[in-house]
Amino acid sequence: MKPGKSKSGEKLWYLFSYDIRDAKRLRKAALQLLGCGTRLQYSVFRCRLSERELERLRWELGKILAKEDDLLIIGLCAACVGKIRAKNKNLDDWLEKPKGYEII
């Protein structure tokens, strides 16, 4: 499996960063990302998405962004998430929740 790719339905963390040159497009893109994740900094968002959700979000953002705008999407594997360091931020919600077992 390629880095950043998930098994079917499995969700991974993605960082989205943009440089959008028009205020109207910037607001639309920010609202789209807020609907899927959390703002970390002014133009940086984190989203926990399945492969299908990621492709849908990329499609939605593609309808908003113009040719002169920039969008960077970085997929984070579990090992990468474990190496995240931040100042004045609570990193507990980045950590993977252990998968539970269902007794039948």
Descriptors for this entry?
Alpha-Beta Plaits; 3 helices; 104 residues; globular; alpha+beta; 4-stranded antiparallel beta sheet; 4 strands
What does this structure look like?
By secondary structure, this protein is α+β, with helices and mostly antiparallel strands. It has a domain at 12-83: Alpha-Beta Plaits. Helices cover 30% and strands 25% of the residues. The protein is built from 3 helices and 4 strands; from the N terminus they run βαββαβα. The protein has helices at residues 23-34, 51-64, 78-82, and strands at residues 12-19, 37-41, 44-49, 70-76. It has a 4-stranded antiparallel sheet with strand order 2-3-1-4. A hairpin with a 2-residue loop joins β2 (37-41) and β3 (44-49). The longest helix has 14 residues, at 51-64. The chain is globular and about 50 Å long. The model has no long low-confidence stretch (mean pLDDT 84).
CATH fold name of the domain at 12-83, please?
Answer: Alpha-Beta Plaits
- Rg over C-alpha atoms, rounded to the nearest angstrom: 15 Å
Spatial sequence of strands, sheet with the most strands: 2-3-1-4
State the secondary-structure class: alpha+beta
Low-confidence stretches: none
Architecture per CATH nomenclature, i.e. the level-2 architecture of the domain at 12-83: 2-Layer Sandwich
CATH class descriptor name of the domain at 12-83: Alpha Beta
User: Could you tell me the number of beta strands?
Assistant: 4
Helix proportion range? 25-40%
Sheet with most strands: 4 strands, antiparallel
Percentage of residues in strands = 25-35%
Please report the number of helical segments: 3
Order of helices and strands: EHEEHEH
Shape: globular
Q: Roughly what is the average pLDDT, rounded to an integer?
A: 84
How widely separated are the two ends? 31 Å
